[in-house]
Design brief:
Helix content is 85%, strand content 0%. By secondary structure, it is mostly helical. α2 crosses α3. The termini are far apart.
Length: 191
């Protein structure tokens, strides 16, 4: 065992045998690797032929989608504008309907008032005129009473002392309180 040449020869032999075994085992793997390389080469060739048109189609599709999006935004803007116009038209129609309702009511109230005025009796017209004259006379009397109290008392005394055309005897003068109590009040007229 002491011969180093023997050991050197033996180790070279073992090395050669292991290299041969490794080469025999690596041959099928290298063949498969060559097949994979050829397959990849064909794939790259196909991609080189097919990819540019596909990328061009994708680019065109993106441009069309952008145009459609712009068209949709424009359509949405127009639809929104139309909705606002319709809303404004509805508001105006509602406002005009309210005005028409108000005018119709006013017209009918005016017609009713005109009908009542034309159909009431002439006596009532005269009594209203008389009531207006009496009210004016009362207002004048009240104004005169507060303006000149002595003149008012003298005017009343003069009217009491004057004989009535229908009666032959003169009635004694009545006190102002009894006159107010005896004066019949006119009921207010209601329509």
């Amino acid at each position: 065992m002491a011969d180093p040449l023997l050991w050197l020869g033996l180790s070279i032999l073992l090395l050669a045998m292991s290299l041969t075994a490794m080469m025999l085992m690596a041959l099928p793997a290298l063949r498969e690797l060559a097949k994979a390389a050829r397959s990849a080469e064909r794939l790259f060739e196909t991609l080189n032929q097919e990819l540019p048109p596909t990328l061009e189609a994708l680019r065109l599709t993106g441009a069309e989608i952008a145009e459609l999006t712009d068209g949709m935004s424009d359509g949405i803007y127009r639809a929104n504008h139309m909705v606002k116009q319709v809303d404004q038209s509805l508001y105006q129609a509602h406002h005009q309907a309210k005005q028409a309702e108000h005018l119709t009511r006013s017209f009918w109230v005016g017609c009713k008032a005109a009908w009542k005025t034309f159909t009431r009796s002439p006596q009532r017209k005269r009594s209203r005129r008389q009531a207006a004259r009496q009210a004016q006379a009362r207002q004048k009397l009240t104004r005169d009473r507060y303006a000149h109290p002595s003149a008012t008392l003298q005017a009343k005394a003069a009217t009491r002392d004057r004989p009535n055309a229908d009666s032959t005897s003169t009635a004694p003068p009545a006190s102002p309180r009894s006159e107010a109590a005896e004066t019949p009040r006119q009921p207010p007229e209601s329509d």
